[in-house]
Amino acid sequence: MMKKHLSRLFFTALFSALMIHVDVALAVEVAPRISDREIIERLTRLEEGQQSMRREIAQRFSSMEQRFLSMEQRMETMQKQTEHRMETMQKQTEQRMEAMQKQAEQRFLSVEKRMDAQWNLTLALIMAIIGLVGFVIWDRKTALKPLERRFERIADELECDLGVASPEGSRLTRLIAALREIALDDPQLSERIREALRRHSLLEETPQRV
């Protein structure tokens, strides 16, 4: 765009110079006869005017070129600033997204750790309860076994001492029956035996075992 504009200005200046030459030529033809010195002076002035015009045109072109360069520099500066701002905004957005993602990941990790800790605690409690129940059952079995053995031994000793397994009854029952038989022959002894039996609550009839 700048080159096209400069070419247009150049052609315009060239056309203006040609028009000036044509006007000068016509003026020379129409004007009365003049001397060679005047012609040389006028040509010198014309050349000086052309040189001054060229200088002005060159100055204008240079000033315009400088303006275009300054405009281009400004545009480049603005473009760089815009790109820098966009890059800064993009970096800030990416940093914020990364920070949010890291926070979300940390929260998920903390939640997972808490869930794992709760699950481990639940498993530990379940295992502790199972172990406690097993220990209680084992303790009861181990604690009751000596009692069971002792009761069995006492029962065996009682059966052996009392003779419960005898078809005629226990030894106590047979002893009372023998005392009753003796008491029938001796009334005084019978009375004494009855009093002794009453004192010891042994006078009632003891049922015979079948």
UniProtKB/TrEMBL annotation:
Top-level taxonomic group: Bacteria
Keywords, comma-separated and alphabetical: Membrane, Signal, Transmembrane, Transmembrane helix
Transmembrane regions listed in the UniProt entry: 119-138
Keyword Membrane in annotation: yes
Signal peptide extent: 1-27
Protein name: Uncharacterized protein
